[in-house]
Structures are given as structure tokens and as C-alpha cells.
Amino acid sequence: MNRISGNKTVGVIDYSSKDHYRTKVFPSPFYSRQEPLNHLKEWGRWADYLSPRAYTSADMEYFACRNACAVFDLTPMTKYRISGADALAYLNRLVTRDVEKIKPGRVGYTVWCADDGRVVDDGTIFHLRENRYRLCSQERHLDWLLTNAMGFDVAVEDETHEVAALALQGPTSCAVLKKMGLGDIESMKPFDIRFFDLENTGLMISRTGFTGDLGYELWIEPQYAELLWDRLFEAGRLYGIQPMGDEALAMLRVEAGFIQANHEFLNANATVRSSHTRSPFELGLGWLVHFDKPNFNGRKALLEEKQRGHRYNLVKLDINGNKPATDSYVFTTGKKFAGTVTSATWSPSAKASIALATLKAPHGRPGEEFLVEIYYQKELKWSRVMARARVVEGVFFDPPRRRQTPPADF
Hints:
Largest sheet: 6 strands, mixed
CATH architecture of the largest domain: 2-Layer Sandwich
Number of helices: 8
Number of strands: 19
Mean pLDDT: 93
Distance between the termini: 49 Å
Order of helices and strands: HEEHEEHEEEHEEHEEEHEHHEEEEEE
Low-confidence stretches: 1-13
CATH class of the largest domain: Alpha Beta
Number of domains: 2
Helix content: 10-25%
Shape: globular
CATH topology of the largest domain: Gyrase A, domain 2
């Protein structure tokens, strides 16, 4: 059985008309709390929702996350409820990793591919209970998921509008949740899921995030979104809690080495030229391809690629100077084209210009050096610099507190 979730009205926002061709953008269930704090009055769009670019200063929001804690609105993230007797078999056919190893109460990161082994998207699978999962991703894939559900006893429902979510990230995040009275929160391990009662409503918390730091994601019904926001900020008042927008999160995720759709890869189903797509191996995600499980989308093509080798390597670059290498070309030291920068930022934690880049294989060995062509403007004058860069192994920011259980009381 395949179906799309039913319409409903949530809080003061009418979601009953979810025709994406008529409704241009939704305010988040947290909008009433976000709007007064958004002093810059700059809003971006994430899928169907308004999303703050920054509330006051992207740099200050970044430092709030690395030194205290910051709150990011996750509501626009695509969320699919997958349930039924064949839910596990369906997901194992859909994605590259062995979903059977994601036990109830746990979260797993994964990718899914087209038949040619090219990545459609990456995301997280939440195993809520037996035969019930939640699949989260940045992009919309309902038609793809329903097409792949043929022959399975499974229900695939878009619950994006039915679940409000906040990411609470940073060293004081656990202390804030303890202050809220969420008992034994400190015993949660990375990728754990727990369920709590928040003033007679259900609150799900996962120890997950997109910052590479200690952090949690909080999931609740939209009509209780304002209640969650208020209780969170009351508890965090003495712990440096701040709201955070898209720009700060972009800096944080590059430091953590996390990839993002439309930056490091394109949806294989929406890309005209297959040469512009990427495989899991070309994104450094070969560890997510489990050939020891039964057939899954792209298995044959990925097995052939593993045997012959892949076209590209995704690497992390430490770049000389202080100019972000956004959209830059990468050259060998002999000035031959080697690849392109996909994401770049100045890292306040690493005190360096850092980047993720796609390089033509076999380039990309740790320690290998390159030249990055950077253009920047200062007072209407454009300048060009060929900055030296080095491939680094590991990520730029990986504090022990990210995995520590229980986390220290900061």
C-alpha cells in the first residue's frame, strides 16, 4: 500500500492547502519566535519554508555554536514516514547500507542511488520502532520513493509539515536539556533516539546534527513548536543559547567535512549529463556501500566501479591565506587543471581558509599539494591569487565532546 499523508491544519498556520504550485512559501511553526529575533530581516528559502540567513551576525552565531549552544530550525527538512510489514525490506532495496543494522531507537546515515550507481541524495534513517522508520533528506523525493515501493507492503507518507524540529548544537547543549528536566539525557550515545514528555506532549530527541559538535535534534508536533522554543530558551538563558541561521551552519558543516546536495553532488535523477553526477565512492562514502546484503539500487554498477576505479575524489583542502576559495579552480603545482572547489569558508576554529573539493582521480592523496585560483573583490577592485593548498586527512573540527558519553557539564 502506498499513500501520501493526509492534510491537516497545524497551529495558526493553515497547511491544509499543500499544493506546492500555488503556495510559494510557508512560515515555520517557529516563525512567531524567529521573526522578532531576526534583526537583519533577511530570509532565505529552504524548500517550502522561510529560513533565516542570519539573525544578527553569522560569525557570532557560529561562535555561539562552538562555545555555548545554538538553535537551528530543521522543520523544512524533508521527512518521510515509512511503515508496514516490508518497511525494512523496502529500505534495504532503496539505500546502499544495510538498514537491518540500524536497530530500533537508533539513527543511521545513508545514501541512495539510481540504477547507474549515481547518488540521488543522502540522508538519515530513524528507526522509531519495529516496522516504522523516518527518512530525512534535504531534497524532495516522494515520486522516487513511491516508484520504488511497488511490490512492497509499505506506506510512504510525506510528514514534512507534520513534524517541527530544532537542532540544538554546541558544548552546552546537553546541560540545557538537563535544565529542561529531561531525565537521563546525558546517557544518550551518538545516533541514539529517546522519547520524552514535555508538558503532556510527546518530544522525540536524537543525538544527531550537522555541525560536527556535541548536539541534539528535537522533534515535536507543530502545534507545540512555540512551547518547545520557549522552554528551550528559558533553560538555555544562562548557557549562552542563541538562534542560528543558514550562513553559520554552512561554516560549521564545512569544518566538519559534511557534504550537501547541490554543492558536493547533484540529484542523479535531475541531472541532464551523467558525467556531472557522483557515486558514493566519489564522495568518500564507500563505507556506506554494503555489498554483503541482497540487491539494492545501483549495486551492479557500484560493484563494477569498485573494481575499475572511480573518476573523482572528494578531498578537504587547507589553503594558504585568508581568502575563502568559493567556486575556485584547483590546479596541480605544474598548473594543470585538477578539479574544483565545491564548498569553502574561512574557519575561525582552524584559523585557516578551508574547502571541500572534487579532484580528478588519482589526485587527492593526503599531503598532496595544489594551487587554488581565488578571485576576490576589495573596494571595487578584483584581485587574483594562486594560493597553495594541501590535502588533509580527517576533518578540520572534531572535538572529543562530539562522542563523549556522558558529555561534560560545560
